[in-house]
Design brief:
- By secondary structure, this protein is an alpha+beta fold.
- Helix content is 42%, strand content 21%.
- It is built from nine helices and five strands.
- The chain has a five-stranded antiparallel beta sheet.
- Helix 1 crosses helix 2 and helix 2 packs across helix 3.
- About 16% of the residues have low confidence.
Amino acid sequence: MIDPLLQSQATRFNEDTLSENEQGVFAKALAINPDLIMHTVSLAEDSPLDFEVLVMPPETLRNTLCEQLFPPLKVEYLLANAPDRNSRALVVADNDGVIEWVSPSFTRMCGYSLAELRGNKAGKILQGPETDPAAVEVLRTGLRENREVTTHIANYHKNGDRYDVEIQLSPVHGEAGELVGYIAVENQL
């Protein structure tokens, strides 16, 4: 059961009438309440807002990533404040390099939605005729050897336009040192 106040805030969120402070509080509630996310999305049929920003990577991987990327900050603060306000394009992939989550900044950069990307390897969708095979090999080596790598690569937007990015691909390890996935931080050049 969702608190009536949160139901009211979900409606106001869809109408884009929450104050900046209320948006911050509501974002924190969304970050920890999957039922509230579903309720908010269910109200959004005619909303102009992009609800893809509410989709987070799996919780254990998400927490590990946040702790490794931003150790001095609390995970809850990051979940409430970072996903859509962070200008870095982020890709979270499983142990095999299959996309599990991308940041809204990444979807804006490449033109593909999270739904179109999830379950695929980035190269399958984004690489094209002018993608340098040597840059691709740098990324494959990082995945194969479970180590951090950085390279520049030509990718292709959904509309077919080429764009160049610097990719920093890093393995993410769990508490016991096991590989739990990868994160790529991308900056458009």
